[in-house]
Design goal:
Layout lengths: L12 E3 L6 E3 L28 H8 L13 E5 L4 H11 L19 E4 L19 E2 L1 H18 L8 E5 L5 E2 L13 H9 L9 E2 H5 L22 E3 L23 E2 L9 E4 L16 E5 L4 H10 L11 E5 L19 H12 L7 E4 L8 E2 L14 E2 L4 E6 L12 H4 L6 E9 L22 H6 L4 E5 L11 H9 L5 H7 L3 E2 L3 E4 L21 H9 L12 H13 L5 H4 L2
């Protein structure tokens, strides 16, 4: 036998018991008609359907892009001294791995790795983590009680290069204060930040999110910090090497994850505010996507909220014909102009709408795109009434929402209303719904610290309590150029096959900065119309079903080869096992 396209699995074919068609057991590659092996042939094509040999070859080639992040590549971090942290970890990973809780729980993701912070030693004495629970910690505490013990644990357990995702649980801190001890909470006060920058200290902004700092766990970013611009890599933000990736994190090599990295200063007054990656990925000193961990958080207002959020993320099945996708701006350019290419690739809302329209699977009528200011042009749902608010009522969207992208409290005309802190709780959300607003402090309130008293904004914790399943938020002032791109969430999750955490980090321009990613990292999307057999999966059987009865998936008015290519892409995305990944 000659093996599949990947040429890695000679003699590794298998056959359906009811059909002579065979495929590689590693990458499920169907043999093309040009292959000399008579045991392989392409899927049967209906008369009149284009012969898409190039498409089949491209879609079914064995590659790391075919595989998704798996549970065995996830490390769940909890603290048994904090009941909420233990309870969330137990619900997610199961009682066998997280003792001392309810007991008897099988776990939603029982194959994940788990570590209890309270069991990890700290240099100089004591154990890792902070107890009682705290939302905000200083950098020395982060380094000594989180970064260093977790780094040591991964090496000691031989997981450093195998784990690709770290999951933090409710009760674990989410904010790190400024390294400038005279301005510890600088990131909470926009006025103070402006003064700081005006004083020439743009290159010494180093308040950050715990989650984002842990993405670079193997790097000691604060080395050399002495309060000056650009004197340590903890200053400012680091360009995310996974930003806009279309390949699973599993496709990136981890062999140089512990090597010290060299960054490029952008110049033009941005030194220290932004660190760029070297352009040669072959160098050990170049930061690549293989050198980072994707860090997600299972968090919310209550443990019950977190459990419900996790439950909604299982067996996702997006109803493409009825789901609404909302892009609510006010005509300003918070979502980008393309003027700062390392981070800003253009007007995100317009690009997201264009991507959805070009794909066609979600009907154009269900893409809600508004760019007008005033509260009367602001979208809210039917579950909370804002009719008596000044300048109202807002526009009401009755239908269930799958993506809520909004300027939120920054939308013109909303500032004088209570809607600025509650609008997200008014919508009907579908399982799998994403909340992604452009608000500087929408991720602040975890661990009971509440929203920013200086800036009233919607909190993602409240959106999750109201029924959203996923969210990306900011724990301190992030500046609009670093906000996550909806275009990538659309392409890689709503229209693609990445897991939630991979899609979220493909949407984030920066690391070592302000963002947190909330939701089950392993959640995998599926679109209902692609499950043609109705068995709850999208696989090769659906390709056979399409050949038997073609379906117009992209709403073009005709079922043709374009629809088949869309289905092939989805099927390929759900194949978890490839030869390359099996070797890791």
């Amino acid at each position: 036998m000659t093996g599949c396209f990947c040429d890695q699995s000679r003699g590794s074919e298998e056959q359906r018991p009811d059909d002579p068609i065979s495929w590689c057991i590693f990458c499920k590659a169907v043999r093309t008609p040009t292959d000399p092996n008579p045991n392989f042939r392409t899927l049967p094509l209906r008369a009149g359907t284009p012969v898409l040999l190039a498409g089949l070859a491209a879609m079914w080639t064995c590659s790391a892009a075919d595989a998704q992040l798996t549970a065995r590549e996830v490390l769940v971090v909890y603290d048994s001294r904090i009941p909420e942290s233990r309870d969330v970890a137990e619900y997610y990973a199961g009682s066998a791995k997280v003792p001392g809780g309810a007991g008897g729980l099988s776990g939603v993701r029982p194959l994940v790795n788990v570590v209890d912070l309270s069991t990890l030693p700290v240099t100089g004495g004591g154990v890792a983590g902070v107890f009682p629970a705290a939302g905000t910690i200083d950098y020395p505490t982060f380094a000594s009680r989180f970064r260093d013990p977790l780094r040591a644990h991964l090496w000691n357990t031989q997981l450093a290069r195998r784990v690709r995702c770290i999951v933090l649980t409710k009760g674990i801190p989410h904010r790190i204060q400024s390294l400038d001890t005279a301005n510890l909470n600088l990131g909470d006060n926009p006025g103070s930040i402006n003064s700081y920058i005006s004083a020439g200290r743009l290159g010494n902004l180093n308040y950050t999110a715990v989650d984002s700092e842990l993405t670079l766990l193997m790097q000691t970013l604060n080395a050399g910090e002495a309060g000056l611009n650009a004197d340590s890599r903890a200053d400012g933000l680091i360009a995310n090497p996974f930003f806009r990736s279309a390949t699973s994190i599993r496709g990136y090599d981890t062999r140089f994850i512990s090597s010290a990295k060299t960054f490029v200063l952008p110049g033009g007054g941005n030194n220290g505010f932004l660190w760029l990656n070297q352009t040669n990925p072959a160098l050990q000193s170049t930061l690549t996507a293989g050198d980072i961990y994707l860090v997600a958080r299972l968090d919310g207002n209550t443990v019950a909220d977190v459990r419900a959020m996790i439950d909604r993320a299982q067996n996702l099945n997006f109803p493409v014909s009825t789901a609404r996708l909302v892009f609510d701006s006010d005509g300003r350019t918070f979502d980008g102009t393309g003027g700062f290419p390392p981070l800003d690739v253009g007007p995100d809302y317009a690009l997201s709408v264009a991507a959805l329209q070009a794909d066609g699977r979600f009907p154009n009528a269900n893409i809600v795109n508004d760019a007008l200011g005033t509260f009367a042009n602001f979208f809210a749902g039917p579950l909370v009434s804002f009719a008596t608010q000044p300048g109202g009522p807002p526009m009401i969207l009755q239908q269930p929402v799958l993506l809520l992208a909004s300027f939120g409290a920054n939308h013109g005309g909303v500032d004088a209303t209570t809607a600025r802190t509650t609008y997200a709780t008014s919508f009907n959300y579908l399982p799998g719904a994403i909340f992604n607003s452009i608000e500087s402090y929408n991720g602040r309130s975890f661990n009971g610290i509440g929203g920013n008293p200086f800036v009233a904004q919607q909190q993602i914790a409240d959106a999750l309590a109201a029924g959203a399943t996923f969210a990306i938020g900011n724990v301190w002032e992030p500046f609009s150029l670093s906000v996550p791109d909806n275009e990538q969430l659309v392409n890689t999750f709503l229209l693609g096959n990445m897991t939630w955490v991979e899609a979220a980090y493909a949407a984030l321009p920066a690391l070592s900065w302000q963002q947190i990613v909330v939701g089950d990292p392993l959640a995998t999307p599926r679109r209902d119309r692609e499950d043609l057999t109705g068995d709850g999966r999208v696989n090769i059987d659906d390709l056979y079903a399409w050949q038997a009865s073609p379906v117009d998936l992209n709403n073009s008015g005709v079922a043709d080869g374009d629809d088949l290519l869309l289905l092939e892409a989805s099927v390929r995305g759900y194949e978890h096992a490839t030869m390359k990944n099996a070797q890791r």
